[in-house]
Design a protein that fits this description.
The protein has 404 residues and is α/β, with parallel strands linked by helices. The chain is built from ten helices and 13 strands.
Length: 404
């Protein structure tokens, strides 16, 4: 079975933090942009030249999978544990709050000497004890809830009436009024912070998870105009315009890393959190489904890792177990601080980035947590099915398991 686990990257970064040279880490993370919403993946309408460049210069995981919605993906990503084991069972109604006992990637990196910052969407709890500032981040510059202006019953919510232009942002515990389009605001703040850290000689972890291109689809007028008349609806033109704006901002950060002379000292990662929310009718890379579905179109994601001089750009497809609820192995060699944080489930992505996965491929399946599930889907040659199968785009098969 070919499926890359979202959460196994945690250990790779834990290992990097103990290397003789600690690279800076810049992590671009988009919301509701699908695998097919990148021009290098074959999209005939959308143009993403800076993402295309990043992809070409990176190790590219071509069979990388995430959860079908955002908070579950973020929970697994930052802990190395399946989202259910982190208390995450939804994206709203206080079911998006990361369990207080969970140890995050930011905590592990800070323990090993990094300064850590988040700029954008957190979506793992909005109460004080759940905020990034309580979960390992030194610098916090975020909106609330799952989107700007989004409010639900309970504690999940952003500043009431917040907008994409000139948004109110929670900056280290206090709301500040900003100026400009939300994605530009997040990237500008992140870039200034990175500049400060590199001038101080501190290794940094800059996490930039934009709310874009999540709905409501509101792009800058000049960005939406690039796609008006090329797609069926104004809504889709704005969706693509939002991605164009992200691409431009990524390009500016990559340029800055070069100007600062730290490209070879910086690991740059790009991922998206789930399948496309609005681009599937234009281009979906031959996949079935979208955000919120268990089909490939809901779970397959981009995963680019660039570290010039250390990682050789290439495409990789690796065989690893299907579930993030995976066998408990040791932390990466040398990650002494991380080894004290024993609550994470972990596998090393270093072997996937740099060499053969070896023995990992021998473990085909992984146990599920105790309890019932309504449906469970996976891929295995043992369950081959014909092209008309209901599950043809989800697995090569699968069985439904209905609980009591």
């Amino acid at each position: 079975m070919k499926r890359i686990i979202l959460s196994v990257w945690l250990c790779a970064l834990g290992g990097l933090s103990q290397a003789s040279t600690q690279p800076n880490i810049v992590f671009f993370f988009t919301d509701d942009q699908g695998y097919g919403d990148i021009s290098a993946h074959g999209n005939p309408i959308l143009k993403t030249p800076h993402l295309d460049r990043l992809r070409a210069e990176s190790v590219r995981f071509e069979d990388f999978h995430v959860s079908p919605t955002c908070a579950p993906t973020r929970a697994a990503l930052f802990t190395g544990r399946h989202e259910f084991k982190n208390g995450i069972t939804h994206t709203i109604l206080e079911r998006e709050r990361l369990a207080p006992k969970a140890i995050t990637l930011a905590q592990v990196l800070r323990d090993t000497g990094y300064t850590t910052g988040i700029f954008g969407k957190w979506h793992l709890g909005d109460e004080k004890e759940y905020l990034p500032s309580a979960r390992g981040f030194d610098e916090m510059f975020i909106h609330g809830g799952g989107g700007i202006g989004q409010v639900f019953p309970g504690s999940c919510g952003d500043a009431p009436g917040n907008k994409y232009f000139d948004p109110a942002i929670l900056h280290n515990g206090k709301f500040v009024k900003t100026s400009g389009y939300c994605t530009d605001v997040f990237y500008r703040q992140a870039t200034e912070w990175m500049d400060t850290q590199r001038r101080a000689g501190k290794p940094f972890f800059a996490y930039i998870p934009t709310n874009a291109p999540h709905s409501p689809y509101i792009a800058r007028p000049e960005d939406a105009a690039l796609y008006e008349g090329k797609v069926a609806t104004p809504q889709r033109a704005h969706f693509y315009g939002m991605i164009h704006n992200i691409d431009e901002n990524i390009g500016r950060v990559l340029t800055k890393l070069g100007e600062w002379g730290i490209e070879e000292e910086t690991l740059v990662i790009f991922m998206n959190d789930n399948g496309t929310a609005a681009g599937e009718t234009v281009f979906n890379a031959g996949m079935r489904g979208k955000k919120g579905s268990p089909w490939l179109g809901g779970t397959r994601a981009a995963s680019f890792w660039r570290w010039p001089g250390t990682l050789t750009p290439r495409e990789t497809r690796a065989n690893v177990p299907a579930s993030t609820a995976i066998c408990k192995t040791s932390w990466c060699k040398g990650a002494d601080a991380a080894s004290r944080r024993g609550s994470c489930q972990r596998l090393s992505l270093i072997s996937l980035v740099g060499c053969s996965v070896g023995a990992l491929a021998s473990r085909r399946y992984s146990c599920w947590i105790n309890g019932s599930v309504r449906s469970m889907m996976g891929r295995s040659a043992d369950f081959a099915c014909d092209a008309t199968s209901t599950y043809r785009q989800c697995s090569r098969s699968m069985a439904n398991a209905v609980g009591p």
